Amino acid sequence: MLDVRGLKKVYEGSGRRVEAVRDLTFTVDAGELVCLVGPSGCGKTTLLKCMGGLLSPTSGEVLLEGRKVSGPPPGMAFVFQEYGRSLFPWMRVGENVELPLKQKDLGKSRRRELVRDALESVGLEDAVGAYPWQLSGGMQQRVAIARALAYEPHVLLMDEPFAAVDAQTRADLEDLVRGLWRERGITILFVTHDIDEAVYLGERVVVLSASPTVVREQLKVDLPAERDQLHTRVDPRFAELRTHVYEQIQAAKRGDGPQDAVTKSDTPPPR
Ligand code: ADP
Ligand code: MG
């Protein structure tokens, strides 16, 4: 579904040169929920912008369903970290969700139906006529998720979407994402710096090194598909996996171990 090959991004300008992403290669299969985890500043947003066609890579390429991404692809939707800046304050919730649909060749009644259905999926059917600033942060982020869902994307890219909400809301939103993934069968690439979140949500975790970024490890999360905040987080296997990822990230920060090489083990740490 998604194929990132030898992606490199160097920011250049005003005499400065920042190599944000050195060499990233990984794939995401159709219908998979993959979490990408790496330390702050390691180039996660840069990578997602390249994947979404918002930024052109210095070298390498991104393929979506076999086609090279060179601008925002029609089958892809984004949920950004800053929900406060991603919704239009002068538009009601329903209008915000409907806006991207206007690029599609759909009749008004079909658009309305998609908006209603998406808001229902995130539990906000009653907020259709409210303005974003009348809602809490968590609700605003739900609106942003509904907007992405209404667009009926094949692939959903999420960039630290819950980093700015409180812990309780965050837990609810994590469960919402897993629920939507299981119901709708969308392919999701979820980026976070939070190790517990990556292990809780993902079917697979891709661990990134510090900048200039390479893939440090890929780990299959062999927890049951049915997860919940109460039981999953106290499962000994959850603790083993999170500890393993934590050690990888610490080593990545220190710069030990595989430097330029890509370690690719799909085998989780032994039980
Ligand atoms: P993350 O999302 O993992 O925190 P970013 O992709 O935002 O990381 O940034 C990775 C690196 O690239 C950082 O060192 C950051 O300062 C640098 N960077 C990001 N955007 C730009 C830009 N537009 N110009 C120059 N450097 C940038
Ligand atoms: Mg970022």
Automatic annotation (TrEMBL):
Residues 250-271 are annotated as: Disordered. CDD domains: ABC_NrtD_SsuB_transporters. Residues 262-271 have a biased composition (Polar residues). Residues 2-235 form the ABC transporter domain. Pfam families: ABC_tran (PF00005). InterPro entries: AAA+_ATPase, ABC_transporter-like_ATP-bd, ABC_transporter-like_CS, ABC_transporter_ATP-bind, P-loop_NTPase. The keyword Nuclease does not apply. The keyword Amino-acid biosynthesis does not apply. One of its GO terms (molecular function) is ATP binding. It comes from the Bacteria. Keywords: ATP-binding, Nucleotide-binding, Transport. This is ABC transporter ATP-binding protein.
